[in-house]
Design goal:
Length: 446
């Protein structure tokens, strides 16, 4: 039986200078540190590499990559480990950057399982060739160390794993890699969540609160179906009434959100919907996320108001907030937002695993595209049931509808596992985390 592999490195102080005597920059003679080797695609874009024996999160030695001021430099520390096939491994690494504008884009941790000669092995679970995994970043500590970690399956015929710690295209930037380990693990713990959407349009309401009360039986039905999250339609405080946007608008929190929050607490589930928000002289179309304890988890102001909205004085939002829940990270967008890839992409870049979409309507392929190209679950709630119109339902990572409402005044639920991997049928493999660091850095959240 091969031994479990644990390798710890820690890296350079955050503000290193060439005068630091504890660091040695790699040259033709200094090219390895405990099995780690510096590499670059081409010598002419090779950055500087350093070894620091006392740096890092725990002061146990480390690996540094430093870029000069030239454009396009790219380099990594790499190491190959012996592993056992048909096993799961957890990889963990820490990185701390200096003068790197967008760490998501300029740094990454890559893990590849392969045969003794570095050749491709087949992942028998996915029925595809095993390609590199890109390890997600999961948080940063007070000292600036970003943690990267994930659990991955080594295919039956895999005998080795190569880890790559990269800094690319970051003029004047530096990264310190440390605390790296590759250890045998149990399979990832399932993260099952029940996602619900309701196709219900309030009617004949005289005001926002009266409209909200009409949703109570559907919230109760979602709870009876053990939903964790229920998404309801767009602008529920004004749709079906004679109220103009400004007349329906209220502060958030306000009477309508307080009432819906009481139902979230009563039925122990998260609720998302949209309503008109007043903030001093401005009015927004705002999506809200209510917690099972009756508190407001957060809100999202529609970034792309439709023509009929901005001609009536609605203002756009400017942020891509993502909220922690008991089951995962949730982002929201509203109606017209789905027509533009930047909105879902911004939410996904900020870590959203699920996007909730209250929407009047639109082309259903837009929801399919947003789910597929961002590798998120998308829960949409609209007011129609036409085949060629936006659906009320849950869209999976494949872009397919997992469940849809075929009748009005109904609640549909789909159970998904946020820990389950989805493999593209190509050399992209599990694209979700690759997408996170390879998407353009321009005009998107860091």
């Amino acid at each position: 039986m091969k031994q479990h592999i644990i390798f710890l490195v820690a890296i350079f102080p955050a503000y290193w200078t060439p005068a630091d005597a504890t660091a040695t920059f790699a040259s033709a003679e200094v090219s390895e540190f405990d099995g780690w080797r510096p590499s670059s695609p081409r010598d002419e874009i090779r950055p500087d590499f350093a070894i620091n024996k006392t740096g890092g999160p725990e002061g146990q030695g480390g690996l540094v990559i430093r870029h000069g001021n030239r454009e396009g430099l790219d380099g990594a520390w790499t190491r190959t480990f012996d592993i056992e096939g048909d096993s799961y491994y957890r990889i963990t690494a820490y990185g701390r950057v200096v003068d790197v504008a967008n760490p998501r884009y300029h740094t990454y941790v890559e893990l590849l399982f392969h045969d003794p000669n570095g050749g491709t092995v087949r992942d028998e679970r996915a029925g595809l060739a095993c390609v590199p995994y890109f390890v997600p970043d999961v948080g940063i500590d007070q000292q600036g160390w970003m943690k990267y970690t994930g659990i991955y399956y080594a295919p039956l015929k895999a005998t080795h794993a190569t880890v790559r710690l990269d800094l690319r295209w970051a003029p004047g930037g530096q990264i310190e890699w440390g605390g790296i380990s590759l250890v045998k693990s149990s399979a990832p713990t399932p993260r099952k969540v029940r996602l619900a959407a309701t196709n219900f349009r309030p009617r004949n309401g005289k005001g926002g609160l009266e409209n909200c009360r009409q949703f109570e039986p559907y919230i109760a039905e979602a709870a009876e179906k053990h939903a964790d999250l229920l998404v309801m339609g767009e602008c529920i405080t004004s749709v079906g009434t004679d109220l103009k946007y400004a007349e329906a608008a209220e502060p958030i929190p306000g009477p309508c959100t307080d009432y819906l929050a009481s139902l979230a607490r009563k039925h122990n589930l998260y609720i998302v919907t949209s309503l008109h928000e007043r903030a001093e002289h401005l009015i927004y179309n705002t999506a809200i996320l209510l917690r099972p304890d009756g508190r407001l988890a957060g809100k999202y102001r529609k970034i792309c108001p439709a023509r009929g909205e901005y001609l009536m004085g609605l203002a756009p939002g400017h942020e891509f907030p993502v909220f922690e829940t008991r089951f995962g990270k949730v982002g929201m967008m509203v109606c017209m937002d789905v027509h533009f890839p930047e909105i879902a992409r911004g939410l996904a870049a900020n870590g959203a695993e699920i996007i909730a979409l209250p929407i009047m309507g639109g082309h259903p392929d837009l929801a399919r595209a947003r789910a597929l190209d961002n590798q998120v679950y998308l829960v949409s709630a609209t007011y129609a049931v036409n085949d060629g119109w936006m659906q009320t339902g849950v869209w999976g990572l494949s872009g397919d509808l997992l469940v849809r409402a075929t009748e009005r005044n109904t609640v549909v639920v789909a159970e998904v596992d946020l820990a389950e991997q989805y493999f593209w049928n190509s050399n992209m493999g599990e694209f979700k985390n690759r997408l996170r660091h390879e998407r353009p850095a321009i005009a998107l959240p860091k």
